[in-house]
Every structure is written in structure tokens, then in C-alpha cells.
Design goal:
460 residues, alpha+beta, Neuraminidase, four-stranded mixed sheet
Length: 460
Amino acid sequence: MKATDIRTRALNLADLANSQFVLYSDIANSLFESYRDIYTRYTDANSDFFLTETVINVTQAMIDPNSTSGLNEYLIPLPSDFLRLRDVEWKGQIVWQPMEKFSMMNKNTWGSYPRYRLQGPNLWVVGSTTMQFSMVRVFYYRSQPIATIPDMDKVFGFTQASISAKAAMKWGTYADTPNGLIYADGNNIQIDSLNTNTTAILYTGVSPTNVVYWAGYIYWLEGGNIKRASTVFTGTLAAVSLTGSGLVARFSVSHFDALLYYTDGTNTYKANLDGTGSVTLLTSVASSVYAFNGLFTLYIDSSNNLKTTSGLTLLAGSALSATTDGQKFIFVLDVSGNVWSYELSSTQPYTLSAGAILRQFVTYLGPYHAMRLPITDSSLNVLAISSAVDYDFSFPNNEANEMMAYQMAVDFRRKQSGNPVLLELLSARLADIQGRFSRVIHRDDFAPERVGNVYQKSWW
């Protein structure tokens, strides 16, 4: 069940579906807290819904340098997503065998077979040698995956514009301070503010395009020149030409290294935000360019490939436009009208995550700002959508989703404190669901197996 579906269910249960009282932070905090509670209930039950297995080769490098003389001790690094241990086995020459836990009193006692304890991020193993003890197999519960939930869309009505004018609107950029969209429309740069529900003209020139809002300035392209002005949300922008070449075809502003990237239709350049210090970045490559994460620069070539300046192709033949958060996420509008969110690995070989679709039927994707992406869809809706992925809670029991929704509804009602009867009813229903959940998560009724790591050593 998607995070937004749980949010909708919770707001309906709390009778707050159309209320402005519940903030995004309230929703996110309540969602994450209820998620943590349910994940803990699953792992405490030891019914192994989220059990993970890994095999680790034991090497001489894992020997504890502080080991007692004559006693083999190992500090075996556990996986980075390790949360709780379920079981440990060790392998000698032939078969896997159960590994028992040793007490602190017996940590210096020699044994003929290895035993373990947890020590920080490591599995602390004593006894045996690497010749007899070559591998360990660890069964564990992973750390709770990070859940995200998108904020509500910001919908820009443009009540003063005709349908044909809306169809021609492009180059929009979201600005969080006035909660508005700054965009080019004909010869004007305008702002549509949700705070004041008004549309105002900020600048009149000659067919401005490529509007970007960043760090107190509004940038745009006009007559082949990149221009900018100190941000004003009322009054008139005082334009200053940055390039003056008259040949710039497209540009972007990097959020990471605070640089301009632009193309003249033949080569691609980078410069300071005031236009000074221009240098050639790519020869015979004309495209949109986005600096990313300090590792390398991304661009889209004429064949719709998303590439790096080092020659690595991240997406082949599908990228129409792109923007980044300047840290680790890349947002791509593909040739089919889908807006994707990708995460780039921070180490070599650099790869993109599988990606998640944020929105479909999109005709325009603007620059990222303040966790928002301005888009226009095929129905001419002009929106600033959240850049967060709508997390899918793939719980094995339906009760988990209901428990999250009811817990969130209780949290919202406690904050509003306007309907104690409804709060009492929601709390009672939540307790019922929690009771049923506690029963259904125990899917294996063989009780001794849940007691602990108890084995007969000669079972094989």
C-alpha cells in the first residue's frame, strides 16, 4: 500500500480530509513513527518475514589484534544494514553447523568449536582456527528501510490566463518563499502566487525562456543571452546580462557547485553565477548540463542519452530533460512522458538505482528547488510536485496498513483535540487491530523454535 494511500485513509478516519490543520511534517512524523512500531513488532515476533541471509568468508585479517595469547578471536564485520541477529552458523570442511553464544565469563575459555557474541558492528567469535573455521552464515533482520511520502501537489490555476495561453506556458520554476511559480509567458516573466492567489508580471522583454530561481536570483534566457536579476516578487526585475554572446541556446544552474552551465549550440561551457570565468567543458557537444555531487557533470546529448562528462552513459536513449537536487538524486523526464527519480551510487562503478516514477503524462519538467519539481501535464495542469518517492509498504498482513492508518488518525485527532468522542473510538479500534495483528504475525506455532538458538550438537 502506498504511503499516500495510508495518508488519505488516516485523514478520512480522523475526519480531516479537507483540513489545513494537519501539516506535512505531522503526516511524515506520524507515518514514520507508526512504521517503526510495526517493523519492530514483526522482528520481535521472530516469524522471519524480513529475514536476510549472508555468508562471510573468514580471513586472517579479521583476527582481533587484542586477542588473548593462544586463543583465536575474530572481529567479523557485519553487513551495513544489520539490525538484529536471528541465527549464526559456521562451516568447517563440509557442513554448516550451529554456532552458540558464549557468556562474558567464558570469553577467555578455549573451545573446540567457535562461539560468538556481538561487539559493536562486528561478530565477535572465539575458539577454533581459520583452517577449521572458514565461513560464517548470518541470519539477521535488516535495518528498517527508509520510507518517504510526497507532500501534496501545489496546483497553479492561472485564473487570468486562457487555455491557449496555458498551453504556451513553459520554463516554470518553483519559488518557496512566495509559494509560487515563476514562468515565461510570451514576452513576460510572471509569478503565480498561492499565498496571495494572484498573478503578477515581473518583467517584460522579448520572448524570455529558461527561467530559473536560485539563491536569491531569477535567471532567464533572452535573445541568446543569460540574464539575471535580484529576486523581487512584486515590482519589476532589474535585468543584468551575464554572457552577452547572443548565442546561448540553453543553460542550467548547478545547486552543488554554484555554477552556470550553458551551450551555444556547438560547445558546452561553465561559468560563475555572474557570468565570469567561462571555460569550455565539452567540445562539439550541445546539450543541457547539470553538475552533480562533486563527482562529475551530467548532460543529455542529442540522442537522449543521459551521460557524464567522463564518458559514462547512465540512461540510454530515453532522457528528454533532467534536473538534480545537487546531492544524490536525479530527476528525469523520459520520452514517454514519465518523471523518474533516480539515486546515483557514490562509488565506482557509478550506476543509477532502479528508479521510481513520480508522475506520468508530463510534457514539461522544470528545475528542482526546495524539494519541488515544476511540471506541466498533458491535461495542461501546471503543478509543483514533491520530489519524494511515494513509498510502497509491502507488508505481508493487511492489518499492518490499517494499524498505520489508525495510529496516524489518532495522532492527528490528538493534535486537533476537537472531537474527544471520535478520538476515543479511533483509539479503541486501533487497540482491536493491534490485538489481531499480534496474533496473525505468529505464522509458525512450533514454540520451541522461537525460544532461542537451542540445538542438539549431535543432531547430524
